[in-house]
Every structure is written in structure tokens, then in C-alpha cells.
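As agreed, record passed on underneath.
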Amino acid sequence: MPLLPRAGRPLWRKEKASQKLYDAIVAQARLPVFYQDYGVPDTLEGRFAVLSLNLFAVLHRLKAEGGEALAVSQELADRFKDDMETVLRELGVSDLRVPKAMRALAASSAALLKGYARAFAAGEAQLARAIAAALPLSREAAGAAGTRLAHYVSECIRSLEAEPYSAIRAGVLSFPRLSASR
């Protein structure tokens, strides 16, 4: 990989930061508390929902920063796309079907993240409804999980907003502590 300067910084620094950010998002999404206590099913769809929520919170923070952070945001979105392609291949989707499946997944992911952004701007109750709609659960169970997850996402966004961008640019994320009692 060439190390050509971009805006005064080598490319590898941004890529390294986006990989560290993505790794932190994935680690957060894998925490058992989401599946054992928050009501999210421990399935491919449930894990995708939690990963998307954590990705949304970080992308929201990067979007607010603007400038260089938008490039990091794009790299993060690209890593998410690459990860989803790997998952499809691991699930046995044939090489010929992967591009079509990826287009559909990219469109639904973009719509989901935009929906979360609109809902977040409208308040926690709207965010809870948007999250509930995305969860692979019955209406009642999705409503309860959506409420808990909306509170978590709101806390997550507040926590990330308090972080200096220099830490985030270095690939360091501080997610709020999760407990079963929420």
C-alpha cells in the first residue's frame, strides 16, 4: 500500500484509525449484555442490529466533527461494507450472488442509518420506535428492547460527543458502561 500524503498525513494513519474504530464498534456490539439483558436475539439479525446502532453512534460523532472526520467516516462505512461482504461469503452466498446481495444490504443499511439519524433528531421516543422496527422480535418485545437500546444510543452519543476528536482520530472510543439493570 502506498504511503502517499493526504492533507499532510500519510494514508496509513487514517486507515489504521478507522480499523481501530471499527474493531472497537464490533467489540462493543459483541457484549453479551445486549443479548442476555437488553432483549436482542443472539442471531445474525440481532447482532447486525446492535452493530448498526453502535456504528450509527460513531458515525453521528464523526459527522458532527466535519472536515477530516468525514473521510474517516467514509473509511469506517467501507470497513462495515467489507465486513458484511465477508459475512455473506461465510454464510455460503455464491460469488455470483454476492454483488446483488451487497447492493441490497448497502441500500437497507443506508436507509436504516438515515432512519436512526432522523429518529434521533426527533427524540429518544422516536429513536426507540425506529430501533424496535429494525429488531427481529415480536412487537411487544421489540418495543421493550427498542426503549432500552434508544437510551443506550443516546448515552453513547453523549459520551462520544464529550470525547476529544484527537482520541477518536487515534481510534480510541469510550462507550458508556452497560449494566443489566437498565
